[in-house]
Write a structure and sequence with these properties.
This protein is of the alpha/beta class and 185 residues long. Helix content is 36%, strand content 23%. The chain contains six helices and eight strands; from the N terminus they run βαβαββααβββαβα. The strands form two sheets. The chain has a six-stranded parallel sheet, with helices on both faces. Strands 6-7 form a two-stranded antiparallel sheet. The longest helix is centred in the last third of the chain and has 19 residues. It starts with 8 loop residues before the first strand and ends with a helix.
Length: 185
Amino acid sequence: MARRAITPRWAWALTGSGHFFTECLDLIRGLDAVDLFVSKAAAEVVRMYRDQLTLPKGSRLFRDTTASAAPVGRFYEGYYHTLVLAPATSNTVAKCVFGIADTLATNVFCQAGKCRVPTIVFACDNAPELETRAPGGMVKVYPRRIDLENTARLADFEATEVALSLAGLTAAVARRKTHLGAGNG
């Protein structure tokens, strides 16, 4: 039986961060073909923003419900041209840096790397002082030194671009769109 041709898609992994979560949803809506990978922690955050979770037509949603994270096998089959991991908590970033793939989000990051799929990560904890949205409004947070060090380490990974701001994430996604539009994806 012949295997059907696959048109590669965007893979977008959400973690349990509310930091620029709605803005990430806006970026997702601007993509043509996207599969969303939602970790267990992200599923809790998604419930808070359920009314804003309108996805593009043809989007698929994969939840972290299996121990083996079965949907990650799609990376080996050429389903994805790009992975975006955004927003990425300091916990997720640390696991990625140290090769721990025990959630759907960290597992897709691992598999994307093994399959040489270009990856964009929006690391939430990337400056000594930040303002972020919490359920009660904006709050100041002070990432730990280890969080900042892990973000810097992740930026050294092959085929991985770390965005340090929403503007940086938006620009990275736009550059990737341009690259793919040029027939290089």
